[in-house]
Amino acid sequence: MPTYEYLCPKCGHAFELFQSMRDEPLKKCPKCKKIGVKRLVGGGAGLIFKGSGFYITDYKKKSGTPSGGESKPAAAAPAPAAKP
Prior knowledge:
3 strands, mainly beta, 5% helix, Rubrerythrin, domain 2
């Protein structure tokens, strides 16, 4: 079910409503209770992929790296001994 955007020209209230495509468009503003609400034409969200690629490229083992995937940091220098 899609989310529709509405605007009341009388009070300026803009809101979204999650309703079936078979439902009639809303006519009454939920804020000012006046009739005349308009359904806006939306561009739709579409499907957006974020990241570097698909699963096979994201988790593919790179040659020359350990199987853990992360390099270990160099060992830290030992702390100086306490003086008596």
